[in-house]
Amino acid sequence: MVPERLELLEPSQAVLRAARALLRRNDRRDTGTFLAEGPQAVREALKVPHVVESVFFRWADVHDHVELLDAARAAGVAHYALSEQNLATISDTVTPQGVVAVCRMLDVPLAEAITPGVKLVVICAQIRDPGNAGTVIRCADAFGADAVILSADSVEVYNPKTVRASVGSIFHLPLVTGVDLAEAIDACRAAGLQVFATDGETGTDLTDLTDRLARPTAWVMGNESWGLPVEHLRLADTTVAVPIYGKAESLNLATAAAVCLFASAGAQHSAQPSA
Fold first, then answer.
1. pLDDT score recorded for residue 2
2. Which residues contact 44 (CB under 8 A, 6 or more apart)?
3. CB 3.0-4.6 Å disulfide test: which of 42, 154, 201, 255 passes with 150?
């Protein structure tokens, strides 16, 4: 016998169809909603007031997600159970993770995210791979960044692969999307941040910037294949190269972002006065 607290209704065909449509970018844009899949993503989404519209559980996994079910009920969020086959129709993965949430988009205007007092910002310019974008957001969250900005020519932040790669971090810090790179850099400078742009070939060695890393900084990360074009590099105060001491030709974009953000975060925290 199924405990009363685990009894769930199946969604109507209209509800299921609306959720399935969110696998398409145009429908996400038109409705202002997106899908977050997996226990960690859904858990973090439910912690943010008024973000989650509904949660879908796979029948076979309901017992494994009692905490999420209780959180959805406590927040007054619609919640349903689906068969394996129906859950697969709203999942972007080969092996669905058993729980999917419909969430409201949560990006904010540039002026709201970049204000005096911010210390660490990541600007993604022409990043096209959703997995890389999500991992950069996760790294930014891990190292205490104040915001992540994705330029207008970058991948959509609500792409299911981006959301999944962020592992819930998309719900933790302000996100700005669809802005011009020069506009983003101008806003960061106006807020008192220096602007570093990564360039593996001609940039200043990261280890030579020890005396500057503690200052408020915006890091500009370029495309996975061609990096940042010359005209974008010129917008920065300094171009920076991550040193490679082994035989690897280069670093993955997300790895380079993690190294740069770790360097800045470490320097900034070390510079803070002891309590």
1. 42
2. 168, 169, 171, 172
3. 154
Q: Which amino acid is at 90?
A: I
Which tokens sit at 58? 């796979």
| β 175-179/120-124 pair status | unpaired
Query: In the numeric block, which tokens belong to residue 251?
Result: 């670093």
Q: Which residue has the tokens 């330029």?
A: 151
At 192-216, the pLDDT tens digits run: 999 999 987 778 999 999 889 999 9
Residues ≥6 apart with Cβ < 8 Å to 249: none
Nearest to 105 by CA among 39, 30, 40, 179: 30
* Residue 102 CA neighbour count, 13 Å, CB half: 24
Tokens linked to 245: 């001491």
Rounded to 5 degrees, what angle do the CA atoms 171, 193, 125 make? 60
Domains and CATH numbers, the chain: 4-104 (3.30.1330.30), 110-271 (3.40.1280.10)
Residue length of the chain = 275
Q: What six digits make up the tokens of 105? A: 């988009």
